[in-house]
Write a structure and sequence with these properties.
The complex is a heterodimer of chains A (about 450) and B (about 475). Chain A is of the alpha+beta class and about 450 residues long. Helices cover about 30% and strands about 25% of the residues of chain A. In chain A, strand 7 and strand 8 form a beta hairpin. The longest helix of chain A has 17 residues. Chain B has 4 domains: about 90 residues, Uridine Diphospho-n-acetylenolpyruvylglucosamine Reductase, domain 2, CATH 3.30.43; about 110 residues, Uridine Diphospho-n-acetylenolpyruvylglucosamine Reductase, domain 3; about 110 residues, Alpha-Beta Plaits (2-Layer Sandwich); about 110 residues, 2-Layer Sandwich (Alpha-Beta Plaits). Chain B is built from 15 helices and 18 strands. A 7-stranded antiparallel sheet of chain B has the order 15-12-14-13-17-18-16, with helices on both faces. Chain B has a 5-stranded antiparallel sheet with strand order 5-6-10-8-9. In chain B, strands 1-2-4-3 form a 4-stranded mixed sheet. The chains are: A alpha+beta (about 450), B alpha+beta (about 475). Chains A and B meet through strand 8, helix 6, strand 10, helix 9 and helix 14 of A and strand 9, helix 7, helix 8, helix 10 and helix 15 of B.
Chain lengths: ~450, ~475
C-alpha cells in the first residue's frame, strides 16, 4: 500500500482538496479503535465513482459512512483504508406527492426527509436512532428499522429504486420510480442491509404513504413480564392493534417513563385519522385497565417525544447503552425474549429487554460499564445469547459491544444458511474485497 | 449419459409414473399463459424436496437445463422450456404443511394454489394478501418466481412482502434455506433477491408466508364514469387526497362488455369506465375514508357511485374483475397483454397513447388494470390465425413499452420479463445495470442451468411458437 500523504494527495488530485477531510478530524471516522488513513467527502455521485475507481486501481480498502450513528455495527475492519463520507450527497432529488414517490441522495438525513414529506402530509415510515444525523444511505446499508416495523415493515419494503457506485467505480441503478416493478432482479433488497459491502449507495427512491394525522402512545405498567406479555398479545390480536407494541424492562422502561416504576412496561404506539384514533385509544385503555397496574395515554408532542425515545433506545446521542444486541425471532418466542431480562451475562448484570410483540424479537440493552469486564467473558456471554437466539429460530446480532470483545467472535452470529451464495455474491460484486472488508457476516 | 440413461435415473428417484417423456403427454407442458410455446425434453413430477434435489443433481451432472413450472399461468414465458430442457412441475407438492396463528404464518409446498391457501387460512381469521387475477389456478412457487402481484398489492405489497423464508434447491441439487422463521435474517437478503428471479436462481420447495389478520370492515365501491379520462382523474384525486385504498382497479368499456357477456358482475353496460375501489380497516376508519372517496369520485365526474351492500355483491364485483381476461374470449380468440407501469399521474397520458396505438395498428385493445399503482394491462384482442396479426400486436406492444419507459415507468409490474420482454430491457436499464443483475445470478447459479435465456437481452430471442413444435419434441422419448 502507498503511504498516507500520497493517498491524500492522489485523492485531492481526483476530487479536489476541499473534498479531503482535515487530518485533525479523522477521529470522527473511527470504527472502534480503527482510524482511516484519509477521509474523502465527495460532493456528488460522480466523485464517489472517481474515488471508487481509484480504490479499484490501487486496492485500497474503502469504509463508507455518513451520519456515523451506527459505526459500532459490524466486526472490526480487516485492514487499513480510507473513510468515504457520503454526507455531501444530501439533496432531495425529486418529490412527487401525487405519485407518492420521493428520490433522495444517500447522505440526506432521516429528519431532513421526514420534514420535507411532512409538508405534504406524507411519510416514508422508516426510522433510525438519532434521526437528525442518521442518513438514508446508512439506514439502508444497515437495514436498521424503528419501533413501528411490525406494521410498516423494514426499509427494504419502501425502497423502489436505488443508485449505487460499484467496487470498480461503475455507477448503476436498479428498480425505478414506480411503486410496482418486477423488471429485472430485485437488487434493492440485496443492497439493503448489506453494510456497504457490495456497493456504495448514492441515491434511493421510496414509495410514500399518507402520514397518520394523529398519534398516541399508551403505556401500561405490569407487575411482571408474564402479565405484560399476556396483555400485549391480547391487544395484538384485536382489530385495533397498534402500529408498534413493545414490552420494556429495567433501564429501558425507566427511560420511557420513570413514573410507571414497575417491573414491566407495555408500550403501544397508535397512529391514524382522528375518528379511528378515538376508538384505538379507548379500546386499548379498556382492554388493559383491568389487568395493568397503571395505564396512561400520551398524545400530541408527548407522544411524538416518546416515539423518538423508543426509536433512540439502542443508540441515543447523549447516553447510549454500552452494549446492544438485536434478537431476530418469531413473535411466538416472546416469553423467551423476555426471559433474557433475568439472565446475567458473565460479570455483567442482566440486560434491559425491549421486546417487539408484533414483529417478534427485540433488543437487549446494557447501560453498565462493559470496559471493566473481561473481554473474553463478555464475548462468551454474547456468544451464549447468539446460541440461545439460534434455538428460537432466529439470530442475535451484537450491534454494540466493546471492541476488544469483538476479536473473540463474529458479531453477526452463526453463519446463516446460504453462506456460500453470500461469499459468491461478495466475490462477484467486490472481487478485490475493498468495500468495508471484514465487517459483515463471516468476515465478508 | 444418454437421454435413455438420464430418464432411467430420474425414474429411479421419482417412480416411473412421474416422468413424462412422450410427445402426446408433453403437449400440456409446452405452453404457459404467454404467446410462446416449446415442448420440453421431459417433465418430472417430484413428491418432496429430496426428490427435487436428487433429480436436479442428476440433471446438473448430465449438463441439462432445468425449468420450474407452477400452474402454467405465467404471462411472460417464464415456464417455457427449451426442447433439450427438463421441466419440473409440482402438482404432487401441494400441501399446506402448517398454519401458525401466533406467528401468523403458513408453511406451504410450492404447488399449493394461491386461492386454496387464502381460503384455508380464512378459517383461522387470517388471509394471504397477494391475489393475482389467476389466483384460482396459480401456485405459490410460481408466485415466488414472478414476484406476483394482484389488486390488493396496492395496500399490502407484492409476493416479496409476504415471504419470510424459503427452502430452495440450487442448480447442483444443494438444498439451502433463505430467510428464516423471523422476518429479519442476518447476512445478505437472499430471500429478497430470490423472489422474482423467474426461476433462474433455484427451485423453491417450501415457503413460509406471512399472513394478515382479516380486517374488521371491508367496503367496496363501484365508481361509474362516462369515459376513461375522467376515471383516471378520479384515481389521481383519490391518491392525491392521501388515501391508499386496499385496491383501486379500472375496467374500461370494452372490458365491461366482455365481462357482462359471461357473468353479470353488476357493471353498467353503458359506462365508459368503472373503478372498483376497496377500503379496509377499522369501522371508524372505513367510515371516515368512505366519505372522502365518494366525494372524490363525484367531484371528478362520476355518473354514479355504488357501494356493495353485502358480501355476495362484493364477490360479484370482484368476480367480474378477475374473470375479465377469460371473458375476452367472447370478443376474440387470442389476447396479448402488456404489463407496463407508469407513475400514477401519467395514467391519462398513457391511456391516450394506448388508444392512439390501437387505432394506428388497427388492433382492439381492452384495459382492465391496477390503476392505483399505475400498473396498466392493455390487452390486445385478435385472431392469431390471421396472417401477420401476431407480429402487428407485438409491434404495438413494443410501442407501449417504449412509452411507459419514456414516461418514467417500467416494463413489468407483476408478470415478469421472461422471454417475452427480455429484448426490451435496454429501455430501462443500461448494460452496466444488467451486468450487476447478472452477477447475482452468477452467485446463485454459476453454471446458468436454471431457466437460461430469460430476462436479459441476448439478441437471440427464441420464438418457439414460430416453428412447428413437432419437429423438435420428445428427444428423450
Amino acid at each position: 500500500m502507498t503511504t498516507t500523504p500520497s493517498i491524500a494527495g492522489q485523492l485531492a488530485e481526483l476530487i479536489g482538496p476541499s473534498a479531503i477531510v482535515d487530518a485533525g478530524d479523522l477521529g470522527g471516522y473511527a470504527i472502534g479503535q480503527w482510524l482511516p488513513v484519509v477521509a474523502a467527502k465527495p460532493p456528488n455521485a460522480d466523485e464517489v465513482a472517481e474515488v471508487m475507481s481509484w480504490a479499484h486501481r490501487t486496492g485500497v480498502a474503502v469504509y463508507p459512512s455518513a451520519g456515523r450513528t451506527s459505526t459500532q455495527l459490524g466486526n472490526a475492519p480487516a485492514r487499513p483504508g480510507i473513510a468515504l463520507d457520503l454526507a455531501g450527497l444530501n439533496r432531495l432529488v425529486d418529490f412527487q406527492p401525487a405519485d407518492l414517490t420521493v428520490s433522495v441522495e444517500a447522505g440526506a438525513t432521516i429528519a431532513q426527509l421526514d420534514e420535507a414529506l411532512a409538508q405534504d402530509g406524507k411519510h416514508v415510515p422508516i426510522a433510525a436512532p438519532i434521526a437528525d444525523r442518521a442518513t438514508i444511505g446508512g439506514t439502508l446499508a444497515t437495514g436498521i428499522s424503528g419501533p413501528l416495523r411490525s406494521a410498516y415493515g423494514l426499509p427494504r419494503d419502501w425502497l423502489i429504486g436505488i443508485s449505487v457506485v460499484g467496487a470498480d467505480g461503475t455507477q448503476t441503478k436498479a428498480g425505478g420510480k414506480v411503486v410496482k416493478n418486477v423488471t429485472g432482479y430485485d437488487l434493492n433488497r440485496l443492497y439493503t442491509g448489506s453494510l456497504g459491502t457490495l456497493a456504495v449507495i448514492t441515491e434511493a427512491t421510496f414509495k410514500l404513504a399518507p402520514a397518520p394525522t394523529d398519534w398516541a402512545v399508551i403505556l401500561a405498567a405490569f407487575d411482571g413480564v408474564d402479565s405484560a406479555a399476556n396483555a400485549a398479545q391480547n391487544l395484538q390480536s384485536q382489530y385495533y392493534a397498534p402500529l408498534g407494541l413493545h414490552i420494556l424492562t429495567g433501564e429501558a422502561a425507566q427511560r420511557i417513563d420513570p413514573s410507571m416504576g414497575e417491573s414491566a412496561l407495555a408500550v403501544a404506539v397508535s397512529g391514524g385519522r382522528p375518528a379511528s384514533m378515538k376508538r384505538r385509544v379507548e379500546d386499548t385503555v379498556g382492554l388493559w385497565s383491568p389487568v395493568a397496574g397503571t395505564v396512561r395515554v400520551a398524545r400530541g408532542d408527548e407522544a411524538n417525544g416518546l416515539i423518538r425515545t423508543l426509536t433512540d433506545l439502542p443508540a441515543d446521542a447523549e447516553t447510549p447503552p454500552s452494549m446492544c444486541v438485536r434478537i431476530n425471532a418469531p413473535p411466538s418466542a416472546l416469553p423467551e425474549v423476555l426471559a433474557f431480562a433475568n439472565v446475567p451475562m458473565g460479570n455483567l448484570p442482566p440486560p434491559s429487554v425491549v421486546a417487539d410483540v408484533g414483529f417478534g424479537g427485540g433488543r437487549l440493552l446494557w447501560w453498565g460499564d462493559p470496559e471493566s469486564a473481561d473481554p473474553e467473558n463478555v464475548a462468551t456471554g454474547l456468544r451464549g445469547i447468539q446460541s440461545a437466539a439460534g434455538r428460537l429460530g432466529g439470530a442475535a446480532i451484537i450491534e454494540r459491544c466493546p471492541d476488544d470483545a469483538k476479536v473473540h467472535f463474529d458479531v453477526w452470529g452463526e453463519q446463516p444458511s446460504g453462506m456460500q451464495i453470500m461469499r459468491r455474491l461478495k466475490r462477484q460484486f467486490d472481487p478485490q474485497n475493498i468495500l468495508n472488508p471484514g465487517r459483515f457476516v463471516g468476515g465478508l | 449419459m444418454t437421454s435413455y440413461e438420464f430418464l432411467e435415473n430420474i425414474r429411479t428417484v421419482v417412480g416411473d409414473d412421474y416422468v413424462i417423456a412422450h410427445q402426446e403427454d408433453l403437449l400440456v407442458y409446452e405452453y404457459d399463459g404467454s404467446v410462446d410455446r416449446s415442448m420440453p425434453g421431459a417433465v418430472v413430477l417430484p413428491a418432496d424436496t429430496d426428490q427435487v434435489s436428487r433429480v436436479m443433481r442428476i440433471a446438473y451432472e448430465a449438463g441439462l437445463t432445468v425449468v420450474g413450472r407452477g400452474s402454467g399461468t405465467g404471462l411472460s414465458g417464464g415456464a417455457i422450456t427449451p426442447p433439450e430442457g427438463l421441466q419440473i412441475a409440482f402438482p404432487r407438492m401441494n400441501r399446506i404443511l402448517d398454519v401458525d396463528t401466533v406467528n401468523r404464518t403458513a408453511l406451504v409446498e410450492p404447488g399449493v394454489i394461491n386461492l386454496d391457501l387464502d381460503n384455508h387460512v380464512r378459517g383461522f381469521g387470517m388471509r394471504y394478501a397477494p391475489d393475482p387475477s389467476s389466483q384460482r389456478a396459480c401456485s405459490l412457487g410460481g408466485n415466488i418466481a414472478e414476484n406476483a402481484g394482484g389488486p390488493h398489492c396496492l395496500a399490502y405489497g407484492a409476493t416479496t412482502n409476504h415471504v419470510i423464508g424459503m427452502e430452495v434447491v440450487l442448480e447442483d441439487g444443494e438444498v439451502v434455506h433463505l430467510g428464516g422463521l423471523a422476518r429479519e435474517a442476518a447476512g445478505y437478503d437472499l430471500r429478497g433477491a430470490f423472489v422474482g428471479s423467474e426461476g433462474t436462481f433455484g427451485i423453491t420447495t417450501k415457503i413460509l408466508v406471512r399472513l394478515l389478520p382479516l380486517p374488521e370492515t371491508v367496503r367496496t365501491f363501484l365508481g361509474i364514469f362516462p369515459d376513461i379520462d375522467s376515471a383516471c382523474t378520479a384515481v389521481s384525486a383519490v391518491i392525491g387526497h392521501g388515501i391508499v385504498p386496499a385496491a383501486l382497479e379500472m375496467i374500461d368499456a370494452l372490458s365491461i362488455k366482455a365481462v357482462q357477456n359471461v357473468t353479470d358482475a353488476g357493471y353498467p353496460n353503458d359506462a365508459g369506465a368503472v373503478l372498483l375501489i376497496e377500503l379496509e380497516g377499522l369501522n371508524e376508519e372505513v367510515d371516515e375514508v368512505s366519505g372522502e372517496v365518494e366525494a372524490a369520485l363525484w367531484d371528478t365526474g362520476a355518473a354514479d357511485v355504488r357501494v356493495a351492500e353485502d358480501d355476495a355483491e362484493r364477490e360479484r364485483l370482484w368476480v367480474g374483475r378477475k374473470t375479465a381476461f377469460g371473458a375476452f374470449g367472447t370478443i376474440a380468440p387470442n389476447y396479448y397483454l402488456v404489463d407496463g407501469v407508469v407513475p400514477r399521474t401519467r395514467l391519462t397520458q398513457m391511456l391516450r397513447k394506448v388508444s392512439e396505438v390501437s387505432e394506428r395498428y388497427g388492433i382492439t385493445i381492452a384495459n382492465v388494470f391496477h390503476a392505483g399503482d399505475g400498473n396498466l394491462h392493455p390487452c390486445m384482442l385478435f385472431d392469431a390465425r390471421e396472417p401477420g396479426v401476431m407480429e402487428n400486436a407485438m409491434a404495438a406492444a413494443a410501442e407501449l413499452m417504449e412509452e411507459c419507459a419514456l414516461l418514467g415507468g417500467t416494463l413489468s409490474g407483476e408478470h415478469g420479463i421472461g422471454l417475452e420482454k427480455k429484448e426490451f430491457m435496454p429501455l430501462v436499464y443500461t448494460d452496466a445495470d444488467m451486468a450487476a443483475m447478472q452477477r447475482v445470478r452468477e452467485a446463485f447459479a454459476p453454471e446458468n442451468r436454471l431457466n437460461p435465456g430469460k430476462i436479459f437481452p441476448d439478441g437471440s430471442y427464441w420464438r418457439p411458437a414460430a416453428h412447428p413444435a413437432a419437429l423438435t419434441v420428445g428427444i428423450y422419448a
